[in-house]
Amino acid sequence: MNSALVVIDVQADFCSGGALAVPEADAILPVINALMGAFQRVFLTQDWHPRRHVSFASSHPGRRPFTTLDLPYGPQMLWPDHCVARTSGAELHQGLVIPHHAVRVCKGTRPEIDSYSAFFENDRRTVVGLDAALRGEGVTEIILAGLATDFCVLHTALDGRTLGYEVTVVESACRGIDRDGSLAAAWAQMDAAGVRRA
Fold this sequence. Notes:
Elements: E1 3-8, H1 29-36, E2 42-47, E3 68-71, E4 74-77, E5 103-107, H2 130-136, E6 141-147, H3 149-162, E7 166-175, H4 182-192, E8 196-197
Parallel strand pairs: 1-2, 1-6, 2-5, 6-7, 7-8
Antiparallel strand pairs: 3-4
């Protein structure tokens, strides 16, 4: 089986001291570095948001981070401003040892729509680019690591299964935000979809 490692959003803003830091995110860096050294095919995703992105609470006067807003494509969690394109917060964490053959995939690049999944934007129709990149390499199995388990890892895993990939999530190489039980709910969804844990 042709496998690829997909490292999701291990960016400065999601790690210690970042604008939207995931608890214990820095602990996954050595695990991910070891994984990257073991795969011939490595893909790294990045949130790459324009300023005043629709997912930012600051783009909606009177709205606060971590509340939900109904948008034309469905409910959207509002976040602190994070991973703004071409800022230090959007850069991949400096502790990552990125192999020279790694491919980067940017998501959340359009101001009017968010993208948790590396396959589809949150309208569930607009493609992001990971599927084409994987199929171009003949990949049939993806191994996922990164941030956050209950958002971008979750949605990438579910979409991967929908598109016919075998999907494994390396639990020790992920961390979640875990708001109101979202982490347990994410694992339940992934288990139900046939996502493997390693």
